[in-house]
What we know:
It is a single chain. By secondary structure, the chain is mostly helical. The chain has helices at residues 5-10, 12-46, 56-70, 74-80, 82-89, 95-119, 123-131, 136-147, 149-170, 177-187, 192-220. The mean pLDDT is 88.
Amino acid sequence: MLFDFGHFIELLPDINTAFLQTIYMIAISLAVSVVMGLPIGILLYITDKGLFWESRSIQSILGFIVNMVRSIPFIILLVALIPLTKAIVGTTIGPTAASVSLSVAAIPFFARIVETALREIDKGVIEAAIAAGATPWMIIKDVLLLEAKSGIISGITLTLISLIGFSAMAGTVGGGGIGDLAIRFGYYRYDNTIMIATVLILIILVQVIQIFGDFIAKVVDKR
């Protein structure tokens, strides 16, 4: 039988636990990526040529670090960050440990999205703010973030969906969550019911996040 509903009911406690672990992982990682990725993305933009904090050295160094982390496949990053994970959380397994690697992967990803959203702003708006005597902080707060908020929200949505995929991959190394459940039950035990259930859960979760994210982005977009 491809899908056994009775077996699915028996596994509901495990599925519920795995789902909550996934939400826990991506919530921590998203918070860290936004808190750290947003200022990095802003710095990447405002230190570029022709802008008010132009600095080729900062732009080049920061850009190199961001590109370097983004170029590492996530499964390799998971393994490479085992010592850092151990030092931060005291263990290398479980959803908390997986959140470290997820955060490291998401920070440069979100930073580039923020930078791209800022580049879509008409530079004339920035020049007008400078001419009016606005300070760099005022320009960042009242011009850049205000004008790019729709793009940034869309970026948060994209980052969140990417984190769901990464969190499923983290299950292969004991990270817990939906991916771990799919590997342990669906793959190793050839359990079609749990495999189909986990795939459907991930599809529904991504669809809900995308619809909600698009709605919020449209609401805040005043253009």
